[in-house]
Every structure is written in C-alpha cells, then in structure tokens.
Amino acid sequence: MDTKKLGFNSKLIHAGAYHDEFMSVTVPIYQTSTFSFNNAQHGADCFAGESDGYIYTRIGNPTINALEKNIAELENGFGAIGTASGMGAVTTIYMALLEQGAHIVSGDAVYGPARGVIESHFSRFGVEYSYVNTSNIEEIEKAIRPNTKLLYIETPANPTIGITDIKAACELAHKNNIIVAVDNTFCSPYLQKPLDLGADIVFHSLTKFLNGHADIVGGVIVAKEEQLYKKLRTMMVNMGPNMDPHQAFLVLRGIKTLSVRIDRQQENAMELARYLENHPKVEWIKYPGLESHPQHELAKTQMKGFGAMLSFGVKGGYEAGRKLMDNVKLATLAVSLGGVETLIQHPASMTHAKISAEGKIKAGITDDLVRYSVGIEDLEDLRNDLEQALAKV
Ligand code: LCS
Q: Which of 222, 205, 204, 155 is nearest to 336 (CA)?
C-alpha cells in the first residue's frame, strides 16, 4: 500500500510496516548482528549496492529500517537514520558537517550536552562556535561568518521553551549556503514539520515523545534530500552509533499512539499552565499556548499544538523550586521528558549543569527554572499534586 497518501494518524500505524512470510501484524524483531549471502556474488553485489540484501546490523536491519521508513514519512523527508541515542544523532550530524575550521551557529538554550560536546570536544579539532538566541533572527545573522557551515536550532528550546521562526531562519541560512538542522524532540512531527518549513535536517531524541514510554534511549535523523541523507548515513555507519533492533521495535510500538498521547498531554499542559500562571506562588511561566509567551503568535502558525513541556519559576528562587521538587508526589523527580508519566527536574543543576554560569545566564537558564513534562495522568490529580506541593513552599 502507498502510505504516502494516508493521513498522519494512519501513517503512524502503517508507514514503514510490512508483513513477513508468516504474515505477522507487527514488524518482527530481527535480533541478528549479521545476514547470510546466497553466494559469493550476492555478497559482492550487496557490498557494491547492487542488491537490496541486508549485510550487517550496523549498516542496516529490517526492524530498524521499518522505523526509519516510518519516521521519514512522518517528517516528509527523503530518508531517516536510526541512532543509539539522541546524542548519537546530534554527534553524527556534527561529524558529517563540521570539518576543521568550520563554524557552527547554534541556539544558546539547547539540550546541555549538544552544546557541551561542541565546546569541550569538537573545539579540540578546530571547530568554531557561536551560541545565540535563535528566537532573534538578527542575532543569527550577526553570528554568521564566511566559514559557517551549520545552523543548529532547537524549538521549543530545552529548557527555556523559547521558539525560533524556522522558516525565517532557513531563508537566512540558505542565502549564506548554510545547512539547517532542527531538533524537533519537543514537538514530534505531529506538532511541527521543520522540513516543510525549509530545514535540511530534522532530528529527535526518540527517548522522548516518539517512543513515549520512558523505556528506551534512541535517536533519529531525517534528511530532506538524498545527497545529505547518504552523507549522514555513511557517517553513522562508519562511526557506529547505530540503533539496536529491539530498541527499534519498542519505538515502532510507542509511535503508534503518538497523536493520542500528545493530544491528552497537551490538553493537560494547557490547563496546568493556566493554573500555574494564576498561582500566587509562581513568579513566571513559559508555555507556548499562553498569550503571555513572547512567541505565542509564532507558535500558533508554526506548531499544530502547543506541546506538553512547560518551564516556570517559583517565588523564592532555587530554594523554593527545590522545595517544590521535593514535595510533589505524583510527578516524578527525574530528567528526560515526553513520556506518559509526568516528570519534574531542575535544569541548572541537572540537564544543563555543564554549561558555564555565564552561558546559562545568557541563555535564560535561570537558577529558579523548574521544567515540567506533562504526562497523561488525570488533570485533577496533577493539579492537586502541584497544589499540595506549592502549599509547602
Ligand atoms: N535533544 C533534546 C531536545 C533533548 O531533550 C535530549 C535529551 C537530546 C537531544 C539527547 O537525547 P538522548 O541522547 O538523551 O536520547 N534530553 C534530556 C533531558 O532533557 N533530560 O534528560 C535527557
């Protein structure tokens, strides 16, 4: 069946899926490291790319391939590359596109290690970097140098929930021959399609919304065009941060319920954001669905929904935030996000701890910022949980 013509919810279930010789309804787990050849010529043809046969799981595997095809269709890309983790996707992109002397312009509020690995490691190989507030297109423009090769955007950003105008950023980058990669982890393709807005690459930590059940770590890269896809795949195959078949199977299972999970999560998120905005002990809150969010209008045009991630500060700063985190009972104090269970964490001391104090201030990762990933529990229970915890602050 040509799944390309199906609607998004049908694609979630059917894109990339196939039936094996036993007509299994779900994609089986091909838990094998290697695949046999019919004869020596067949082996040579597979290596030469003249036969479709599988060779070795780092290079390709039917279960992983099913997931890659599924996500490539969801993101409207040419092809996808599964990786061992979201950071495996990030570093594969960096390795493929940043040579010695190249320059990257990146959002300053991005997942901490995506920034840390450039500042601490890629710099050792002569890669130059500028971290700017990509919500402000002028800041991106000012940072561009003749050797800028990659514009790296995360929107909504982790953990500030800042939003970048993907279309405007891509127009600017392309005028300067710069490739644009967008981290779509906070939205998933259900809420935002960066390739349709002009990006060259979109990638995810599958660990979050796409899998949705906090039981695997994984990543994926989707390229809009064949040439870039091949370059990224070659890098992944050579570097080795490949996905595992069992991991791919679990993501294929999780992805089927993506839209129903996110519908419920963002419904809860909107109500909780309104509740927190009106709470006397809450100093500030950032959620794209609130009129008070500085890029609310942009969010309305770029995103299909406002997502399930919110950040807020409690009056009394870090100590008050700690009190809140120590007193919630239903929300779990843990890093990661996007699963069916509600999680709460403190980025300045946890996920973004490695960014310098100065870098954190510039990026808006304040000490009082508490990040809250909304799950699919009953809204009343989540509100009551926050209410009793805030009462103790
Ligand atoms: N991109 C974003 C936006 C992320 O939030 C994360 C992980 C990654 C990439 C990296 O993916 P991973 O390798 O973990 O699959 N974010 C985390 C977080 O906020 N808390 O714990 C992990």
A: 205
302 Cβ closer than 6 Å to some ligand 1 atom: no
Q: Where are the domains of the chain?
A: 3-255, 258-390
Distance 205 CA to ligand 1 centre (A): 6
Expressed in angstroms and rounded, the spacing between residue 362 Cα and the centre of ligand 1 is 21
Cα distance between residue 163 and residue 135, in whole Å: 6
Q: Which atom of ligand 1 is nearest to the CA of 207?
A: 15
Q: Considering the domain delimited by 3-255, tell me its CATH architecture.
A: 3-Layer(aba) Sandwich (3.40)
58 is catalytic: yes
**Which ligand 1 atom sits nearest the alpha carbon of residue 114?**
9
In tens, the pLDDT along 54-108 reads 999 999 999 999 999 999 999 999 999 999 999 999 999 999 999 999 999 999 9
Q: Is 336 in the pocket of ligand 1 (CB under 6 A)?
A: yes
Q: Tell me, using a 6 A CB cutoff, whether residue 219 lines ligand 1.
A: yes
> What residues contact residue 339 under an 8 Å CB cut-off, 6+ apart?
208, 211, 212, 213, 214, 373, 375
CATH for the 258-390 domain, from 3.30.750.24, 3.40.309.10, 3.10.310.50, 3.90.1150.10: 3.90.1150.10
Tell me the per-residue pLDDT of 222-241, one tens digit each, with 9 for 90 and over: 999 999 999 999 999 999 99
Q: Tell me whether strands 128-132 and 148-154 are parallel, antiparallel or unpaired.
A: unpaired
